[in-house]
Amino acid sequence: MNLALWIAAGLLAAVALAGGISKTFVPREKLAAAHGGGWTGDVGDGFVLTLGILELLAAAGLVLPAVTGVAPVLVPVTATAWILLMIGAMITHGRRGERAFVALNLVYLALALVVAAGRFGSGAF
């Protein structure tokens, strides 16, 4: 089970890192033109940048605390925060009629739920 939790956390960290890098360093206008990025045209630069930074922090929080042994409880806390972020993403994409992205966000939410439940429940890091 521990290996499955590491794999799930690693996958989520990779997704968070990719999303965080793009939202932090790619101009909002370019993101808005990309498939699935249309929502960025409806919000300000600061909002997109904030989400990008939060995703970069999530990438670190899903892996580094367990790797270093420093405050490993931050892994399930980060996974729980990711669940909330995915709920917001599902609402945003749902309002735009982007069902494929809603489904993808649901997969990420499910992975985060596994990580949160597994790490809160077992305490195995």
UniProtKB/TrEMBL annotation:
Subcellular location field: Membrane
Keyword presence, Cytoplasm: no
InterPro entries: DoxX (IPR032808)
Keyword Magnesium set for record: no
Coiled coil: none
Annotated transmembrane regions: 56-89, 101-120
Keyword set, alphabetical order: Membrane, Transmembrane, Transmembrane helix
Organism: Streptomyces hyaluromycini
Membrane topology according to the record: Multi-pass membrane protein
Pfam families: DoxX_2
Superkingdom field: Bacteria
Name used for this protein in its record: DoxX family protein
Chief site of localization: membrane
